[in-house]
Amino acid sequence: MPEEYIYLGVAGWYDAVARSALKSRSSHRSASGFVRPGLCALLSAWAVVGGVIAPWLQRRLSLRALNTAEALAGALLLAAAALLIPSPLVAVPVALLLLLAPAANAAMFAVMLRSTPEEMRGRVNNTTGMVAMSLAAVAPLIAGLLVEHVSDAWAMGAFAATSAVAAVLYLTMPGLRPPQPPAATPG
After folding, report:
1. Is residue 67 within 8 Å of residue 177, measured between CB atoms?
2. What are the boundaries of each domain within the chain?
């Protein structure tokens, strides 16, 4: 599912920003201890706001439109973060992305409920969650390698590309299209 690419992108972005800030503030070790908690607090606050506006978004957008919007916004906002990387303002694009995350996650869960037989839902939900969290666990390794061996901006760009891949998958996967009414049988 494309959701895993979103997890990889956001988790990788988070670690790339933290590593970049630690690298650029190497002479100020006392200030670098505030980078990760500060990012976490900002992103958590925006995710809560996203949870509050999720019902409003879900009433106005289809499941496919909502998830595609999240993935496209992810690609654009993570690319914007790549341009802002030396600045503390780098957190703003991803905070904006997290406004869509709660509504998009609920939409993906609705797609899973609609398309999975009842006796398989637990297995499908757990497998999807396991893959998503596994990619989120690998993201710090990818981010660290990219930040150290390429550059901060390239690391951001790589995670923007994962969101772009998710957008393409959202647009092309048949399971995300609205259900078609059964065809009328002649007779």
Report:
1. no
2. 3-174
Predicted TM-score of the model (pTM): 0.71
Most confidently modeled of 4-18, 38-52, 56-70? 56-70
Angle ∠(181,182,187) on CA atoms, nearest 5 = 135
- Residue 24, classified by CB atoms within 10 Å of its CB into exposed (0-12), middle (13-18) or buried (19+), is middle
Class of domain 3-174: mainly alpha
Helices (H) and strands (E) in the chain, counts: 8, 0
For residue 19, give the nearest of 161, 153, 164 by alpha carbon: 153
Q: Enumerate residues 6+ apart whose C-beta is below 8 A from 159.
A: 8, 9, 10, 12, 13, 16, 78, 139, 143
Residues 6+ apart with CB under 8 A from 186: none
